[in-house]
Every structure is written in C-alpha cells, then in structure tokens.
C-alpha cells in the first residue's frame, strides 16, 4: 500500500490573504472617545490588522479585517463598536 504524505507549505498570512472582499456584514468602528491605548484590540485581532500609536489613534485596515468583532468584545472601555458594512455614515 502506498501512503502519500503532504503538508501545506505556504498557508499564507494575513498580509497575503486579503479578507476585505468577504468580510462579514459588520466592521469595527473605532470611536476615539475613551481609548486608553491598552493595545488589547491589536493583540487579539486574528488578522493583525489593527494599528495605533496612542490614545484614540487605533484603526483597522479594512482590506484585511474579516468582521469577527473580537476587538469590540475585548475593548475594556467599549470604544469599538461593530457597525453594518454599509453603515459608515458618521
Ligand atoms: S473585527 Fe476582527 S478582524 Fe476586524 S479588526 Fe476587529 S478583531 Fe480584527
Ligand atoms: S482595546 Fe480599546 S482602549 Fe485598548 S487600544 Fe484598543 S480601542 Fe483603545
């Protein structure tokens, strides 16, 4: 019997796999009102697409965000909310 072993050698990281085109119906909005720059949102984002350098500067690169909502869940001051994909009107 012949057994063939295989592996995925190039799984692709977030920078390769743009997710913006298939994101869920929601995306995060960073309100920049109460952010304490704890960096937790950036640390837990599975796509590594949240960036910031201080209070009220954090944002998500929507080309890579998949809309999972984890960032909004973990923000200790509730400064991130998930909004409908087409609802960015302020
Ligand atoms: S919704 Fe998910 S993928 Fe998008 S920025 Fe937040 S944690 Fe990252
Ligand atoms: S989790 Fe909330 S308070 Fe912490 S850096 Fe992100 S937006 Fe700011």
What does this protein structure show overall?
- This protein has about 90 residues and is α+β, with helices and mostly antiparallel strands.
- The chain has one domain (about 20-85): Alpha-Beta Plaits, CATH 3.30.70.
- Helix content is about 10%, strand content about 15%.
- It contains two helices and four strands; from the N terminus they run βαββαβ.
- It has helices at about 40-45, 70-75; strands at about 25-30, 50, 60, 80-85.
- The strands form two sheets. It has a two-stranded antiparallel ribbon. The chain has a two-stranded antiparallel sheet with strand order 2-3.
- β2 (about 50) and β3 (about 60) form a beta hairpin.
- It binds iron/sulfur cluster (2 copies).
- One iron/sulfur cluster (SF4) binds near residues 60, 65 and 66.
State the main characteristics.
90 residues, alpha+beta, Alpha-Beta Plaits, two-stranded antiparallel ribbon, binds iron/sulfur cluster
Q: Given the helix and strand composition, which structural class is it?
A: alpha+beta
Hetero groups in this structure are: iron/sulfur cluster
Number of domains: 1
Amino- and carboxy-terminal Cα gap: 63 Å
What portion of the residues fall into strands of 2 or more residues?
15-25%
What's the CATH architecture name? 2-Layer Sandwich
| Oligomer type | single chain
CATH topology: Alpha-Beta Plaits
Helix fraction bin: 10-25%
**Overall mean confidence score, pLDDT:** 85
- In spatial order, strands of the major sheet run 1-4
The ordered string of helix (H) and strand (E) elements is EHEEHE
What is the CATH domain class? Alpha Beta
Number of strands: 4
Low-confidence runs of at least 5 consecutive residues: none
User: What is the radius of gyration computed over CA atoms, rounded to a whole number of angstroms?
Assistant: 16 Å
Quick one: overall form?
elongated
- Largest sheet entry: 2 strands, antiparallel
Q: So how many helices? A: 2
């Amino acid at each position: 019997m012949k057994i063939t072993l295989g592996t995925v050698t190039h799984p692709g990281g977030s920078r390769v796999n743009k997710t913006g085109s298939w994101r869920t119906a929601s995306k995060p909005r960073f309100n920049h009102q109460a952010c304490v720059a704890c960096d937790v949102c950036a640390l837990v984002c599975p796509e590594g697409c949240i960036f910031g350098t201080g209070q009220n500067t954090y944002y998500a690169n929507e080309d890579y965000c998949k809309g999972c909502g984890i960032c909004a869940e973990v923000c200790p001051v509730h400064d991130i909310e998930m909004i409908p994909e087409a609802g960015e009107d302020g």
